[in-house]
Amino acid sequence: MAIVTGAAGGIGRACAAALSRRGAVVIGADLRDRPVPGGPAITEFRRLDVTDPEAVDALVGEVAAAHEGLSILVNSTGLYPSAPLTGIGAGEWDRVLGVNLKGPHLCVAAFARALVAAGRPGTVVNISSTAAARARLGAAHYSASKAGLDMLTRSQSLELARHGIRVNAVAPGYVKVDSSVNPISAEYEDAVLSGIPLGRVGRPDDVAEAVAFLCGDAAAWITGEVLVVDGGASAGNAGLPPSGPDGRVRSPR
Fold first, then answer.
1. Whole-angstrom distance, CA of residue 101 vs CA of residue 89
2. Can you give the pLDDT at residue 253?
3. Burial zone of 189 (CB within 10 Å; 0-12 exposed, 13-18 middle, 19+ buried)
4. Residue at 241 is within a domain
5. 153: how many CB neighbours lie within 10 A of its CB?
6. In what order do the strands lie in the sheet with 72-75?
7. What are the TM regions of this chain, as residue ranges (predicted)?
8. Mean pLDDT, rounded, of the chain
9. Residue 41 belongs to a domain with what CATH number?
10. Does the active-site annotation cover 142?
């Protein structure tokens, strides 16, 4: 039994589908009322504001009471707005940090209370971003929230390990989701693609398969880790030509 937040979004839907294919009963939750058409069959879909502690506690408590096998939580809810540093007001800062950092804290805390009370082990995967370690123009609030989420993941893993609850994160690089929701110019995508050694942008399923791995028995001795899924982009700058031993740029042969 799994709870997937952000289940109406591209990565969240893919995570729900990946877990469902592996036999999990999935409860989807999102601020939107329902998944978009074409999404995976979710056993139950609930509207949830992850920044509302009472709503989070109620959802997790109801699911835990109705389904004895609750053991997986995937925190996929997130905001990725773009704004210059001087244009990020206090309200926008609080909104992004609320969804991207406060939300995963509230969800994991509620999930852990339910599992500890039941004496049941479990696993959590938080969806982070490579922006946590690599700043991006126009995304100071987003990058800060994801950097905080990486450390929150490690802290959660330390505190919950004694209860048999593993906590990890997956940090995607550039993943192409519904372009009508978050339109990206062809020029920007080409620039991103030039820095990805594996030669293509990411897909939601790339992230979902990593999430499913961390939720499975094969990852039983993994906790506190942030698994980067970015086609090798964080390994170095694949868009630069090679340089010689004297540091001068050499043309590829």
1. 17
2. 47
3. middle
4. no
5. 26
6. 44-47, 26-30, 2-5, 72-75, 122-127, 165-172, 226-229
7. none
8. 91
9. 3.40.50.720
10. yes
- What's the pLDDT at 43? 87
The CA distance from 135 to 143, in Å, is: 6
The answer to whether 111 and 73 have CB atoms below 8 angstroms apart is: yes
CA angle (23, 35, 210) in 5-degree steps: 45
Is the residue at 240 inside a domain?
Answer: no
Domain count, the chain: 1
What is the four-CA torsion angle of 106, 108, 111, 114, rounded to 10 degrees?
-80
Angle at alpha carbon of residue 184, lines to 74 and 12, rounded to 5°: 15
Structure tokens at 209: 């398969």
- pLDDT given at position 67: 87
Looking at the domain assignment, is residue 253 inside a domain?
Answer: no
Total number of residues shown for the chain? 253
Cα–Cα dist 72/23, whole Å: 12
Please list, residue by residue across 222-249, b when 16 or more beta carbons sit within 10 angstroms of its beta carbon and e when fewer do. ebbbbbbbbbebbeeeeeeeeeeeeeee
The residue segments making up the domain with residue 142 are 2-232
Work out the burial of residue 70: count CB atoms within 10 Å of its CB; fewer than 13 is exposed, 13-18 middle, 19 or more buried: buried
> CA nearest 157: which of 144, 145, 169?
169
Catalytic residue among 80, 142, 174, 188: 142
Residue 245 falls within a domain, yes or no? no
SS3 assignment, position 218: helix
* Maximum alpha-carbon separation in the chain: 67
Low-confidence ranges of the chain (pLDDT < 50): 38, 180, 252-253
